[in-house]
């Protein structure tokens, strides 16, 4: 009975609802309808009230009427006959003089899914599409989709309506009709031609949701109508130019094409008119513009979307998720787009797991020779994360970095080996798996690591990790001839207790050892094969049978036996560690399909650019409207086009005249255009604003190279061995001030270099190769018309110069450039490093002369330590001078900026406002360099430098003096 | 586009459903519940979930999942942005967006959802238009409605929807004309264990509360507009004017709205307002760990640092924390391992500290990682980037409005790694 009671109650309650609905009192009816809507909201069935509700469809009370509409739309499909009773009410309302009543009648009528009224709906849509009110026409565009889903046979007639509405010039209609177009006839791009330019021009004034739909449709349109703005062959992939240059003849042809490419003005129009929408508050609009640029803009223009996409990362978690997915896809092909914003992808402990994983993916995509040390240091933090799934993902990411950037492969491998002694099982297991892959890609001598893993083997319990170690043993059994048989012996003991995946690898190991070292392992192998023969798992039984036939010679085994060794111990291709987002760009960015990486229903393919541009004249509109002299239309606010009333297209003039009945709308239009005029006349009598007078120090923002700095954070100099990357990154606490090149210097001009030009800059990162070296990045460009081969570093002068060369560049194609890293030990002197830059045929003498400031590394220290150290470096070791300061340089931020632009030192936080301190060490010998600047009156200051290196001190003093005197 | 909407609470009950096309059975949410069960944290439910016939796109706000049912290809951000707009609207109408508030106002909620989408495509999402269509509930109106049976549906028609400025309702009248602007900046930073800044940036917004009669046309200019590196505008802002003169020119919506969001150019050094001295350590083989935290002001330009709240997720092995705050109160939740310390105001003469011991599970090994410290704080009367509003002028109306501006700096995602 307890189960029955609620149903009885609800029946009872519905009974009283019925009475209320049928009463004469308006308030009772309303009360009843509110309760009914409450039932619908909870998903309860209220269909038996239909007859009582439908009677109120013509009620005068607006709220009651609206609630009845809600009910009707919900239940009409189930109660078709009764629903028909209401139709005449709507038909009458469709003729109402008030546009809102007409619109609302059409909205409800078209939402009633009763097939029998399809002809009525069709008629209503056709009439409303020609309505004077744009609001009613908008509603009719929505109704088209509803009718289409109710009865797809109406398609042809509906397309006619769409065609008509596409010509509509109201911003109100544009979004809705394009939506209808996308649902009903997305393949009829011929309908768009004549409306293309109008849509582009209206776009900025369309409401935000409509913008998204229009932009996505226009992206598809443009890909069918314009030719590619991308140089052929360069395609999407900036990192992979090789493929294209392979065939000489094609190259010439393509270059010809590239040179004669002129962008269709209509193509340009679309790019220009969508750009301002990157500033939209609506994240969907920003994303849709970003994808439009990605798919349509010339390569060098795509970068303008970067900042806006990064901005979206501040938004809600779900927005971040989608935006990060898209950035992940983009960053594979265009590292350069997002590299300056690398820090925006640093993981925070509060990020949710899927956000963390995506950020990791992007960081890995962005890793290159120049930033890898920064990224690895960041990864080092992630490996220690409490979120073990994330730590495991980080290990995989390290593996990917190690394979992609050969400079750090060994460093990463050593780091991963250290992780093998981690306490967490997932971390260990993941490390083993990644090490296995790395060793495979690096078939050099790594027996030490394999031995180490064999030692750890007993403590590792994760099956995948155990299997991986066994596979390694087998594959490289000849490198560890003593250990491998012993491992097999142990495994023979535990075989039956192992997981299936481990058993398979035991059989594998046994087979390989049998082939290479049958003397020691023959019996063991046979024992294991016997165990496998009776295993419960048929995969293992199959594998055992197969292996036995393959390796043990018998009369049945035949010819295959001879090849056993070549089959089992064949050199295996290394696994490719690549991004999960590698092929995602086959889907249009920003789509659901891209997000899911599978084709969603209704997904429209983005076509390839046509080889030859289709007829451009199809977009010409015959009648050029008399535009300029008409007053601007009331439906455009000139948000983007202009703030001057008469400089817009004003193409909506017709509409204004068609709106005679809508008094309110034209009224408001006048008032606003009136206000625009007043604004200019009133501008002289501007009112003073009440505001607080306290002034904050103003920051200067000028485009000098020094401004490229973010901040040089204070850093503690600890030479303790790093937990993770002990070998090459011995000074992990030296943080990197900025990513971008600071100042670029010429190394070799292309005239002297016979087409080879080289530029260099100091990235101010700790050098990967040796801590005593200064890192230098060199950009080599081939400006000649033939490819240059074997670019390398030749003789150096002085001969003792300690220099880490970059790897020889086998081939540099014309127009191509490549960035390489070098390390130079300048021995704390500004003496130039001279060396020869060689190609296959030529040698060029070049020299790098460092500014003294580049020979330092920033360190952190407390104010107290600073004073203490300063006290030790007096007398001979102190250089000081009173200098003149430019007035602009008196704020502490300006001072820091100037000092940091000159020298790679760290800021020491100070309690005294008038003294600024900076600390560093020389790169080569590690001598302390302490800079202090004491402000005096009348824009002068006492600059003191304390260091043992007095020559460097005087040079640094000279440079700083000059910088601080400059405005 | 959007077929149906289901609201799901933290315990996995559907407490509201709305369909814009034919009804989709609520059993479609089973796929969502599955994902919810798999996720360790509520935030870990994937925002996009494919099912055999539909796609579920959801957002989580105020511990309610708003699950939209999609049938075919649509930009996921379109749906996500819309769902957030729905939540914002509810918050605007009911003050809070909780399950209770939604259930209490179910009729208004339904009326709103009905106006916001037509056949799954957004129709009216501007708060000013919606408020003309459906009046927000107030205590007084609810009482009057119950007694007289009158309605909360606007008698007027939504003329704003057709006007030049669809975001502003017409016929606005106030006796006191006022315009307030709040410049709020947030510092996002990651500080590493040695106190160096790994990354730091400033994001800001200007929120406005404008109560002005008629159709005022406002211009707002800055002393130092070049600070603003990347901006996004409310649709009312004239873009060209900004491009040309770096002036915000707009006819404002009536009431509260976000005029501008901006990002301060990363070329400027970011002032870090507080520093943290920490010593959190665990020893191998000991069941105790040391916890020692001191906060101090760093670059605050002489302003007080207030409403400081420190929180940290301690390692799983920590059973309890026995700490002694020099000021404020702290709590430790032994289940979630979340340590929260409500510090209040930082007094530069007497730095707040939290010291003591953590007890670890006996026999458990030393935790690998030290916890990250999250800091929240407020600094009044200062925008940390130095952004200053120069002046605000009004055209188009004759009266003299009262104009006010307020600056505030907050910590955004401010983390210190230990």
From TrEMBL, chain A:
<dbReference type="InterPro" id="IPR056314">
    <property type="entry name" value="AP3B1/2_C"/>
</dbReference>
<dbReference type="InterPro" id="IPR026739">
    <property type="entry name" value="AP_beta"/>
</dbReference>
<dbReference type="GO" id="GO:0030123">
    <property type="term" value="C:AP-3 adaptor complex"/>
</dbReference>
<dbReference type="InterPro" id="IPR011989">
    <property type="entry name" value="ARM-like"/>
</dbReference>
<dbReference type="Pfam" id="PF01602">
    <property type="entry name" value="Adaptin_N"/>
</dbReference>
<feature type="domain" description="AP-3 complex subunit beta C-terminal">
    <location>
        <begin position="699"/>
        <end position="831"/>
    </location>
</feature>
<keyword id="KW-0333">Golgi apparatus</keyword>
<dbReference type="GO" id="GO:0006886">
    <property type="term" value="P:intracellular protein transport"/>
</dbReference>
<keyword id="KW-0968">Cytoplasmic vesicle</keyword>
<keyword id="KW-0472">Membrane</keyword>
<feature type="compositionally biased region" description="Low complexity">
    <location>
        <begin position="666"/>
        <end position="684"/>
    </location>
</feature>
<dbReference type="InterPro" id="IPR016024">
    <property type="entry name" value="ARM-type_fold"/>
</dbReference>
<dbReference type="InterPro" id="IPR026740">
    <property type="entry name" value="AP3_beta"/>
</dbReference>
<comment type="similarity">
    <text>Belongs to the adaptor complexes large subunit family.</text>
</comment>
<keyword id="KW-0653">Protein transport</keyword>
<comment type="function">
    <text>Subunit of non-clathrin- and clathrin-associated adaptor protein complex 3 (AP-3) that plays a role in protein sorting in the late-Golgi/trans-Golgi network (TGN) and/or endosomes. The AP complexes mediate both the recruitment of clathrin to membranes and the recognition of sorting signals within the cytosolic tails of transmembrane cargo molecules. AP-3 appears to be involved in the sorting of a subset of transmembrane proteins targeted to lysosomes and lysosome-related organelles.</text>
</comment>
<dbReference type="GO" id="GO:0030665">
    <property type="term" value="C:clathrin-coated vesicle membrane"/>
</dbReference>
<dbReference type="InterPro" id="IPR015151">
    <property type="entry name" value="B-adaptin_app_sub_C"/>
</dbReference>
<feature type="compositionally biased region" description="Polar residues">
    <location>
        <begin position="630"/>
        <end position="639"/>
    </location>
</feature>
<keyword id="KW-0597">Phosphoprotein</keyword>
<feature type="domain" description="Beta-adaptin appendage C-terminal subdomain">
    <location>
        <begin position="855"/>
        <end position="965"/>
    </location>
</feature>
<dbReference type="GO" id="GO:0030131">
    <property type="term" value="C:clathrin adaptor complex"/>
</dbReference>
From TrEMBL, chain B:
<dbReference type="GO" id="GO:0030659">
    <property type="term" value="C:cytoplasmic vesicle membrane"/>
</dbReference>
<protein>
    <recommendedName>
        <fullName>AP-3 complex subunit mu-2</fullName>
    </recommendedName>
</protein>
<dbReference type="Pfam" id="PF00928">
    <property type="entry name" value="Adap_comp_sub"/>
</dbReference>
<keyword id="KW-0472">Membrane</keyword>
<dbReference type="InterPro" id="IPR001392">
    <property type="entry name" value="Clathrin_mu"/>
</dbReference>
<dbReference type="InterPro" id="IPR022775">
    <property type="entry name" value="AP_mu_sigma_su"/>
</dbReference>
<dbReference type="GO" id="GO:0030131">
    <property type="term" value="C:clathrin adaptor complex"/>
</dbReference>
<keyword id="KW-0653">Protein transport</keyword>
<dbReference type="InterPro" id="IPR028565">
    <property type="entry name" value="MHD"/>
</dbReference>
<dbReference type="InterPro" id="IPR050431">
    <property type="entry name" value="Adaptor_comp_med_subunit"/>
</dbReference>
<dbReference type="GO" id="GO:0016192">
    <property type="term" value="P:vesicle-mediated transport"/>
</dbReference>
<feature type="domain" description="MHD">
    <location>
        <begin position="176"/>
        <end position="417"/>
    </location>
</feature>
<keyword id="KW-0813">Transport</keyword>
<keyword id="KW-0333">Golgi apparatus</keyword>
<comment type="similarity">
    <text>Belongs to the adaptor complexes medium subunit family.</text>
</comment>
<keyword id="KW-0968">Cytoplasmic vesicle</keyword>
<dbReference type="InterPro" id="IPR018240">
    <property type="entry name" value="Clathrin_mu_CS"/>
</dbReference>
<dbReference type="GO" id="GO:0006886">
    <property type="term" value="P:intracellular protein transport"/>
</dbReference>
<dbReference type="GO" id="GO:0005794">
    <property type="term" value="C:Golgi apparatus"/>
</dbReference>
<dbReference type="InterPro" id="IPR011012">
    <property type="entry name" value="Longin-like_dom_sf"/>
</dbReference>
<dbReference type="Pfam" id="PF01217">
    <property type="entry name" value="Clat_adaptor_s"/>
</dbReference>
<dbReference type="InterPro" id="IPR036168">
    <property type="entry name" value="AP2_Mu_C_sf"/>
</dbReference>
